[in-house]
Design brief:
The structure is a homodimer. By secondary structure, chain A is of the alpha+beta class. The first copy, chain A, is built from 8 helices and 13 strands. Chains A, B: InterPro entries: HypE (IPR011854), PurM-like_C_dom (IPR010918), PurM-like_C_sf (IPR036676), PurM-like_N (IPR016188), PurM-like_N_sf (IPR036921).
Chain lengths: 345, 345
């Protein structure tokens, strides 16, 4: 994400091992840089952790981000790390509130890249209405990391209407995907492989929490299951839930939203879009009775304009995901074996 | 930490990129390994995050661990990652409850090393009485990481008697260190440099939460400040708090507990023990009236047998740390410049 904010001035052009040593350089980097950008009442406590009152049912989630390249079409690792954990909390039926932020930096990372990432983190946190309240910075020697890894962990409050659990899924429930699949993975792969398209394919990284809250407000416990299909794609999510529930999951390829360019790129790269990573979409499994209204609300949301009902839960083929292809044949969609797209998030 | 538990059988001797792909290999590693070892009612929810009820004032902390070597005299990165975050929460005056656990693994890490670390995590969590409730596993290519990095984030409940804040520190308050300084740093450095001593110097990594709870139970708000002096050593902690409070911090070298072998190793390596990392000790700043009783309780605890009052807070030299040396001279103890011991935690 581009920004016109001026960056703070530092004596160093790059991050050095000393910036992770806990001494003067660490202190200056935090005081004159990180805290200035991300500061808020809780982060400013500057203790080993943040303290705040909390009550209710909470969700707690963590993810480390190792995406390569760490600056990519449509974003960078900073906003990805905020949106990713915000979305994981939202998928638990929670309203995300507080994030921690931990950097593992390879010595030599340019200070301007680091601050570009920090600014993206600030903007993403602002948009998602979460506070970065505590953090950590480590630096490793050149060749012992890869520019920048980020961990975010997060705490959210479970929405009072939410009752998300795979055990609540029943035959007849409808499977909805909130947007075009495989966009993030192909945006990253196209940079890695030097592919060019008529228009640039950009990552779909976005915070989904406000969209989810709106759906939970209205549909409450008719929403049985939510999950963002990041690495491993929608095939992996559906296989996991099929295995957990021992129910069958039938999807129809005709209904799968995918951008034409992304589909073309998948063909060119020999990738099955069902397995390609996403960042800005989710899968919802909802009571059949509300599926049409749920879809209508989603389609009216900027994060769900391409949402579609892609299939349903069935008693047939328990534990398996089966897809009806465009030409009418059926095939079992298995778990991904190996890793077709390493370091996609 | 040695263990005699049998390790699960895997088709692979090492972690591959596929184990981080979100597909079948990731699924198997989690189902047949990680969940078996670390499983509990909350982790077993197997969602994008864990959900549980919580109420009160909470503390939230995060740290990434990049120590090299990741298996070292006295422990490994697994227990270090549990104890480190448990201790950070304790230093906030909290009773640690829930941890997240996130791995960044370099492709090629041996499966047996990974499971040795997992078993240490299990044991450390058990000892500290915390639950690992949510996690993440990423794998990066060879040469893009260094065997194993771990992030733990944690949630604790603030002890009802705790009132830890640097703003409460007053002149006359006593500075206490709970044990011998510089042990962890020297244990790691002696392995890196191939130093041999008569007896092996081992890391002091340990969970301090039960010790802290006992002190908070009795001394409550007479405890003004707690901090574990990890990287940067006690000099960095005292400088940070001196800068925050604009008070002076006077310490007496004669009272600083340090093992003879550790002091000898510091001389040999040209390191000042004030700046060397610790893992199993803390600095407490307490009301002068309770200092003797506080010390007595600490000395009776296995984590505080070597505890000592090392100095006091003063109106002299505001914002500075001054040490009276063994031969009676005084010197300003500055912030560490650079990083004398990279990747010590």
């Amino acid at each position: 994400m581009k920004t016109s904010c001026p960056l703070p001035k530092f004596d160093f052009d790059v991050i050095t091992l000393g910036h992770g040593g806990g001494g003067l350089l660490t202190h200056r980097l935090l005081q004159n840089g990180v805290f200035d950008i991300l500061g808020n009442d809780l982060l400013d406590q500057q203790h080993d952790g943040a303290s705040f009152p909390l009550s209710g049912n909470v969700a707690f989630s963590t993810d480390s981000y190792v995406i390569s390249p760490f600056i990519f079409p449509g974003g960078n690792i900073g906003e990805l790390a905020v949106n990713g954990t915000v979305n994981d909390l939202a998928m638990c039926g929670a309203i995300p509130k507080y994030l921690s932020l931990s950097f593992i930096i390879e010595e030599g990372l340019s200070m301007s890249d680091f601050f570009q990432v920090l600014l993206s983190i600030k903007q993403a946190a602002h948009k998602a209405e979460v506070k970065i309240v505590t953090g950590d910075t480590k630096v490793v020697e050149q060749g012992k990391g890869d520019k920048l890894f980020i961990n975010t962990s997060g705490i959210g409050i479970i929405h009072p209407g939410a009752s998300i659990h795979h055990k609540r899924i029943k035959p007849g429930d409808q499977i909805i995907v909130s947007g075009c699949i495989a966009t993030h993975g192909i945006a990253i792969m196209s940079v890695r492989k030097g592919l060019e398209f008529e228009t640039t394919i950009v990552s779909d990284t976005v915070n989904l929490n406000h969209t989810i809250t709106g759906l939970l407000d209205r549909f409450g416990n008719d929403i049985k299951f939510l999950r963002d299909p990041t690495r491993g794609g929608i095939a992996s999510v559906l296989n996991e839930v099929a295995e957990l529930t021992r129910l069958g999951f039938s999807i129809d390829q005709n209904n799968l939203p995918i951008m034409e360019q992304v589909e073309g790129a998948c063909e060119m790269l020999g990738l099955d879009p069902l397995y390609v990573a996403n960042e800005g979409i989710f899968i919802a499994i909802v009571n059949r009775n509300v599926a049409t209204d749920f879809l209508a609300q989603l389609n009216a949301d900027s994060n769900g304009t391409e949402a579609a009902i892609i299939g349903e839960v069935t008693l047939d083929h328990p534990g398996k995901v089966v897809m009806k292809s465009r030409i009418g044949g059926k095939r079992v969609v298995n778990f991904l074996t190996g890793d077709q797209l390493p370091r996609i998030c």
